[in-house]
Amino acid sequence: MADEKKIELAKQVYSTLCAAIEKRNWNFEKDEEKLVVFFGVSGEDIPMKFVLIVDAERQLVRLMSPLPFNMSEAKRLDGAIATCVATFGMADGNFDYDLATGEVMFRLTASFRNSVVGEGLFQYMISLSCAVVDKYNDQFLAIDKGVLDINDFIKNNS
Fold it and tell me: DSSP readout, 83-147?
């Protein structure tokens, strides 16, 4: 369990996170007890959902954006390849992929251990995540539906 100093810092970080989202004038849900926020964003094509968790014990902010579909069983290998190709070129963040279920999730973390965190961190995390998820979610869906060949995906994203 997190000690009091870690919990106090986590609460400060959570307050800064909420202020950063409020500055965007976005609707979001808060779970103040668990230090979690939930929000959705309309991208160019597929709606995106985000969860941000302030982890007091590990002194991390974790952002996750699960895609609203799972890769079908027939396209699981292509999904694994696509998430690896997409992640390889990223400077920050990554796609997690569950081969057993076909679930794809974008994840980005930042440590606040012994740090003072400003709203800029959250603006960066949110902006980057929205751009990355919006860039790839329709391509992953197109691969799953057989509209985009994995070789074309590799060629276009390498």
Answer: HHHHHHT-SS-EEEEETTTTEEEEEEEEE-TT----HHHHHHHHHHHHHHHHHHHHHHHHHHHTS
pTM over 0.85: yes
The H or E element spanning position 16 is: helix 4-23
Radius of gyration over alpha carbons of the chain, in Å? 17
Question: By C-alpha distance, which of 112, 118, 153 is closest to 23?
Answer: 118
What is the pLDDT confidence band of residue 2, given thresholds at 50, 70 and 90? low
Give the integer Cα–Cα distance in Å for 33 and 141.
35
Burial of residue 127 (CB within 10 Å: 0-12, 13-18, 19+) is exposed
Could you tell me which residues are beta bridge partners of residue 96? 105
More confident residue, 60 or 45: 60
pLDDT-derived band at 42, boundaries 50, 70, 90: confident
